[in-house]
Amino acid sequence: MLAKIYITLKKDVLDPQGSVIANSLKSLGFNNIEDVRQGKYIEIKLDSENEESANKQINEMCEKLLANLVIEDYKVEIN
Amino acid sequence: MKSHVIVFPGSNCDRDVAVAIKNISGHQPQMVWHKETSIDKSDLIVVPGGFSYGDYLRCGAMASTSPIMQDVVKKAKEGVPVMGICNGFQILIESGLLDGALMRNSSLSFICRDILIKPKNQSSVFTKKTQVAKMPIAHNEGNFFVTSEQLKKIRDNDQIAFQYCDENGNVSEHSNPNGSLENIAGILNENKNVLGMMPHPERAAELAHGCEDGKTIFESILN
Prior knowledge:
The structure holds two protein chains of two kinds.
Chain A: E1 2-9, H1 16-27, E2 39-45, H2 51-66, E3 72-78
Antiparallel strand pairs in A: 1-2, 1-3
Chain B: E1 3-7, H1 14-25, E2 30-33, E3 44-47, H2 67-78, E4 82-85, H3 87-94, E5 101-103, E6 111-119, E7 133-139, E8 143-145, H4 148-156, E9 160-164, E10 184-188, E11 194-197, H5 215-222
Parallel strand pairs in B: 1-2, 1-3, 3-4, 4-11
Antiparallel strand pairs in B: 5-8, 6-7, 6-9, 9-10, 10-11
């Protein structure tokens, strides 16, 4: 099973890297940029009986190590 | 007096801390490799600065899962003084001993220069001898953040150890090098026996460093 994990800063946490990327894109002529948020993408291959148990395990991994829940949100997709 | 300095792959301030402790207390601290699982009876455990595990994933995240950290957390909960400097602060946050998060500096630059700090909590075992003090910072991720509920909690419980200030001790936006919330340079845990701070007192601890202000923090714990 393959889990895809997207980790981004929470909405109310300032993302200075995102702001700099937005400015650079605007300077390249992409004038319709409204907002840029930068984050991390992690893929985990795991041997799991079913999607439900994989999901439970991946969520535990996110909470224990992969994301810092004080400043970050995460989203998990499993295929 | 028995002290211990934890060493991770990528620690680079471990020996500086050991020299400062030796000079100030007269006792040689014991270096403890991160693969060890327990620390002897200790009067002070220091988690030093550096780039443990190359700052992979998040600064301090990998080191917080090292075998020795289970015993550091246990000892901290038993009341042993534990001090994390710079990357050590990041490791203590990631191990759950301290609140908050250390984000990328608001300027997006690595900052390496002298700054001034002053204690907010003036009675803890770490802060009671320090006034306005000069010492270096050297970090890319020192921008302290906590949720508004956590901020209220650490304020109400007098857990703010140090704040960045100017030479007159004024805490202002101008004296904030990295965007930290409320100019926070260091915090304490609820029981005040765990300190995390971004500035490096061990790099301002003898005349050859150009400044000795950092000594006051070690003197406070060691004597």
